[in-house]
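User: Okay, second chain of the day. Same drill as before: sequence in, structure tokens out.
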Amino acid sequence: VQLQASGGGTVQAGGSLRLSCAVSGRTFSRYDMGWFRQAPGNEREFVAAIGWISSFTSYADSVKGRFTISRDNAKDTVYLEMNSLKPEDTAVYYCAVKTGVSYAFWGQGTLVTVSS
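Assistant: Same drill. Structure tokens below.
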């Protein structure tokens, strides 16, 4: 399984970015997907998840109301729309495929930098 994350960059506080994660090597539509992030000096943390049925989504409290996770099964891609970005959102963002009860496959990460 390969995951390719893209869409990171530098944005001013209050701005928006849209991350994409293209998945290959598995039947994408059958798996839950997640986004995580890791800021310098911090542990990796959960950001958002979406079920193989897109009606299921969950978010970390820190991003609720600002971030939206979605997926396009026809394109084997999961997205993270990030609005009202804050400097504390600065991190490397990773997408992951969930198999069973754990996230077993990870992308390489894409850096998001939010300047104040």
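The radius of gyration is 13 Å.

User: Thanks, on to the next one.
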